[in-house]
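re: ur question from the group chat, yeah i did fold both. here u go
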Amino acid sequence: MIRARIIGCGACLPSNIVTNDDLAKTVDTSDEWIRERTGITQRHIALPGEKTSDLALGAARAALADAGIDAGELDMVIVATTTPDESFPATATVVQARLGMTRGAAFDVQAVCSGFIYGLSVADSLIRTGAARTILLIGAETMSRLLDWTDRTTCVLFGDGAGAVVLQAHAGHGDNADQGVLNTRLFSDGRLHDMLYADGGVSSTQSAGKLRMQGKEVFKHAVTNIAAAIVASAEASHIAVSDVDWFVPHQANQRILDGTARKLGIDPAKVVSTVAQHGNTSAASVPLALVTAVKDGRIKRGDLVLMEAMGGGFTWGAALVRW
């Protein structure tokens, strides 16, 4: 069996760090209020002129260097983002050009905070079917561009950044001992649109709009849906949730991470959390957390890693990977 093995990863964060105390100077909030409700202490915010493609390119170069390959070996570039540079073309094509990649294809995936999981599923399918051998998958966002900076219930939650992985075809035996993506599980429910959305768009308001969220409802659905996705992915590979070595969740809110762990009886020590340093970086949050845990030595080759996310739409999903 052909598996999509992750052979390298990398990240890129804006140099501009905004702390909770910084936000308290411009909006009615405080460090204590934010930390108690979200676990966030700071976030990286793109500087004027710093675009999603800039962050995506930084993460891409880091991932390629980690994989030990150059852009000429890539068959495809996939960028998961809800904050593209332009309405068109795809931000992935901008990255493709700036990498000097002149072959293959590049396209974007839009599933908001679940974008990286959706993109991983697409990349895995393309590699399994032989349509591509080596794919660069990037989750990149400048969520700060969508925020209403007068709304303390949303502007304190989000940050900007990018994370990337290089996936390559790898021969396996078809069992759970294989390195690479073992399974992905994707879900959505468009009826829940009004709980988390941007109030603009090309065909409706001719503007990007601002992020709007019903926080309590999102929290309730997030814990339920993410827990269900984790179970679905574990069951698809006939393992127990307790068999997973590391959980790398979407970094939306520390309370969501804690609530999901409690619901499934997961040891909190096995949950990778970067929300305190990054905030919610939407499609970038899972790869940013993944890179953090790989680089600090927690995730090692052979470990069983389960990634999951939920975003506006609602979309949600999980992916089980043998590192």
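okk and heres the other one u asked abt
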Amino acid sequence: MPVLHEQLIPVFDEVIARNPGEAEFHQAVREVLESLSPVVGKHPEYADAEVIRRLCEPERQIIFRVPWTDDAGRVQLNRGFRVEFNSALGPYKGGLRFHPSVYLGIVKFLGFEQIFKNALTGLPIGGGKGGSDFDPKGRSAGEIMRFCQSFMTELYRHLGEYTDVPAGDIGVGQREIGYMFGQYKRITNRYESGVLTGKGLSWGGSQVRTEATGYGTVFFVKEMLAATGDSFEGKKVVVSGSGNVAIYAIEKIHQLGGRVIACSDSSGYVVDEAGIDLDLLKLVKVEQRGRISDYARLRGGGARVVTDGSIWDVPCSVALPCATQNELDEVGARRLVENGCQIVAEGANMPTTPGAIRLLREAGVRFAPGKAANAGGVSTSALEMQQNASRDSWSFDYTEERLAEIMRSIHDRSIETAEEYGAPGDYVAGANIAGFIQVADAMLALGIV
């Protein structure tokens, strides 16, 4: 394990002591702190003002109960969370995740990552995250509506277009955003469209928002390839997951000349050497809410389902983990290296374990962390906020070009910062340091608050 700078060891020890049992949060903090040794040496003012220590402590942590009634009339109970982590650059901004795995440690890890991701966009947004241990899978639309209304009945008091602006995440799509926005409007008697992003196009949403995280990840990899005179043309690509991020990553890869030959869900993965049929995948996963095995059954031909092993066993030039945290471990990373993978870019939040990251980097595989590579979603959320504030609506092409420009800027900034701090070509160091410096400078300017 990399050694922390001596001034950062007590900071990390305090994070462990103050947040026991929150392994994902510890992992996220450790990864950033490992990158900051050259920064502490060059800028002692950050350590002197204890800005790093303050950055690891959320400004506010909100936990609340969410009672709701199911279709059988039984009262159900879930727990809701919102961690408003850092507002030095703007209102808190980050998604809501509805999944049984959600607990405070998950929300804090996501919120901590969001601080740096949002800073890298260059847009005036702080970092936050939220969600609930509610599982929308298998629930009726009526049950989901009642849950969302109950959830927002508590959360609304902490939100505002200049205070905290949630969006969607796992388990929270346009339907859930709609139910929550409706309840917010009902309670506040205000059509404050900038308070939630990921809305429908007919009621304040932005073009490209649905596609943004997947498109953004691919735009980032496009810049990684271009930096060495290469492109997606003819490349075999593996994309884990088959949700929103994966679907639109696949779409943009195909548009750029690459060929995605495998994707997955929690039941296994499908290999389709001819290239994933995107229309069929959307039918199965979006319209029918089916499983990856349904895709293989309907596709026929050379498509095959694998229910054991790992999607990372499939040979490829580019791998995009787009499902969930810590899905790519050392075993998977070793298989990617053995099969000649050149680039791994995170489309999900922290999907690669620390051991896997070290293995990939030591093997010369270019690795892009999620806080840089999957910043497309929050970037377009911020563009949605701009349109809401100005009562404007932009075209798909214009919004997509803005997204591509932001991802290009994040790529270039990460590379330039890595070079400046003695880590040429290291996207992890570059992204962590660039995001940290922007937030830390703002915190110093605002005083001890």
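fwiw on the second one: DSSP finds 18 helices and twelve strands in the chain. The radius of gyration is 21 Å. idk if thats what u expected
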